[in-house]
Design brief:
about 575 residues, five-stranded parallel β-sheet, about 15% strand, five-stranded mixed β-sheet, alpha/beta, 4 domains
């Protein structure tokens, strides 16, 4: 039985130890045929970047030539090798795991990671360098000094094989710092900062023929201004259409993975496809790219558990992935929190935001709304819905990301109301909703939270904000798959609560929300009649008639008083 390589980032292990590998090797030929040799490539966290960087290392390193057929024989590039295969000394760096608590710790961590990469390089290619020479290189007291010494040694030894530098997670430590210490961040990327000096040394080495190729991965371009000031000949492949699916999975690739997971069991594949699309799909990295991309680690985590347990996992978002993505909270406090919260409000109430996408950030200038929206895009918290002139319409890509936003908004509710959400009462209400068909307890919870939400006038409370509050409360439970603005024959149901595997429920719900400020309370009966007609119309749609045990509700809120109507 083939294994799913969730969390595995070593290409050799994946290739040789019976893991499933979605073949991304055709991109090696595409990259070699580009007119540029120095590239950087950004994707959200847990999006397959490290595995791709490892693929490059094994494919181009001269030390792996003897094992080429074992490593690559079953893949596209093994049958169609490129001219540059196994023709480089590969120098790899990885800059995650650095202690960023102080500037000094960050500086030392960057140096340690640099030395780690250089030391591995010297051991791998020890035939080219003596022990004394190798030890001397590692005595450098700064990252750029260590790199300069290594390149000088390469020149002195007149090594004919050029160097391919692969840098994974180039911005990991910087992303950690920027969220809580802009002063240290500024010092690190300044003209005299150690990051810029590091890349200046690499640029000099490219000009002298020491370094022939460079590939850099990361999440955001927040340090690209520093990097490319020192290394301004690199090409950004991030939003190139032909590289849209270089990491991540297409639907066709997901289908092949589902076939493997279901090889020894009976699966409802159409439902699995629909659920995977809703939870993990939705990423687009070019406005005219042909296909939206699935987050690969999320898909692999799901399929690994489906294959092993022969049922859906209890949690559709693996805890390790969730811990990375929950860092969104730190970014909303960045530079201009009030401006950032306006973006959040627009995203939650409208479902989209419109913005250009910043390619390089300069934190010495004003941090604009466009900069913040762009950070959300690079980190995977929004993705491209469509183009609109020179701007993009950006949306939450999938249900996982939507859930994280509502988790975050729940924190905001608690901060504004200065009250902790009573999750015990909410869970009791969820149980009554799901198994007893009793929606009144949950309606009571909504009303209670509206009454404590004393700052709602400050955010221009409306029906859309009511929906955000309700969705935030619903998100606390994992019993339902909650769909907002569900389309039925070009009409939209406000909320649809659908059964979510592996949790069977006795009742599903179609819910219409209505809101009136207190001064318009006299309009409530007309609004109620309108809501009843709307909901009855929705219930006639073929999509809703297929649902079993569907209950129809109307929640009408006047000020902060809620009335429930059950059809």
């Amino acid at each position: 039985m083939q294994k799913f390589p969730y969390g595995e980032s070593n290409f050799a292990k994946v290739s040789l130890e019976n893991y499933v590998y979605v073949d991304k090797t055709p991109y090696l030929e595409v990259m070699e045929n580009l007119h540029t040799s120095y590239h950087f490539f950004l994707r959200p966290r847990r999006f397959g970047k490290s595995l791709f960087a490892s693929l490059l290392s094994y494919y181009y390193g001269v030390e792996h030539k003897a094992n080429f057929d074992k490593l690559f024989g079953r893949f596209h590039v093994g049958k169609n090798p490129t001219p540059k295969a196994n023709s480089y000394l590969v120098l790899s760096f990885e800059f995650s795991g650095i202690d960023t608590s102080t500037y000094e710790n960050t500086l030392q961590g960057f140096l340690n990671n640099t030395k780690k990469g250089v030391e591995f390089f010297l051991k791998t290619y020890q035939a080219f360098f003596s022990i004394t020479e190798r030890e001397k290189v590692l005595t450098g007291t700064s990252s750029h000094e260590v790199l300069q010494s290594l390149f000088q040694l390469w020149r002195m030894q007149k090594v004919e094989t050029p160097i391919y530098i692969i840098i994974d997670e180039y911005d990991h430590f910087a992303n950690e710092i920027i969220a809580f210490n802009l002063t240290d961040f500024g010092d690190i990327i300044s003209r005299n900062g150690f990051v810029r000096k590091f890349y200046e040394v690499i640029k000099t080495a490219t000009m002298e023929g020491v370094v022939d190729k460079l590939f850099v991965t990361g999440v955001t371009p927040i340090t690209l201004d520093s990097m490319t000031s020192g290394f301004n000949i690199a090409t950004d492949l991030t939003m190139e259409r032909q590289f849209n699916a270089m990491t991540g999975f297409t639907f066709e690739e997901v289908q092949s993975l589902v076939d493997i997971a279901c090889a020894d069991q009976t699966c409802d594949k159409p439902r699995i496809y629909n659920d995977l699309r809703a939870w993990y799909n939705g990423y687009l990295f070019h406005g005219r790219a042909k296909e939206r991309i699935y987050n690969p680690n999320m898909v692999l985590s799901f399929l690994r558990q489906l294959q092993t347990n022969q049922e859906y996992p209890d949690k559709m978002l693996d805890v390790n992935i969730a811990s990375d993505y929950k860092k969104i909270k730190n970014f909303f406090a960045l530079k201009n929190p009030e401006q950032n919260y306006v973006v959040l409000d627009e995203l939650l109430t409208k479902g989209t935001i419109q913005s250009a996408i910043t390619e390089k950030f300069n934190f010495e200038r004003t941090f604009t709304r466009t900069d913040f929206a762009s950070l959300l895009f690079y980190m995977g918290f929004v993705s491209i819905q469509s183009r609109k002139g020179l701007d993009y319409v950006l949306q939450m890509p999938n249900y996982v990301i939507q859930g994280l936003y509502f988790d975050f908004f729940a924190d905001i509710l608690e901060t504004k109301t200065q009250q902790i959400l009573d999750t015990d009462n909410l869970q009791t209400a969820f149980q009554a909703l799901a198994y007893d068909g009793n929606a009144q307890l949950f309606a009571n919870e909504i009303q209670q939270n509206l009454k404590t939400f004393s700052n709602r006038d400050a955010i221009k409370f409306s029906e859309k904000h009511l929906k955000v509050v309700v969705l935030t409360l619903l998100n606390i439970s994992k019993l339902y798959f909650v769909k907002s603005e569900y389309e039925t024959e070009k009409k939209y149901v406000d909320l649809l609560l659908l059964e979510r595997l592996p949790f069977p429920v006795n009742y599903q719900y179609a819910i219409e929300l209505k809101y009136l400020p207190k001064e318009r309370a006299n309009e409530v009966e007309n609004l109620k009649e309108q809501a009843i007609l709307q909901l009855k119309g929705y219930l006639q749609s073929p999509e809703l008639q297929q649902l079993t045990n569907l209950k129809a509700l109307i929640w009408i809120v006047v000020g902060d008083d809620l009335e429930m109507v059950e059809l």
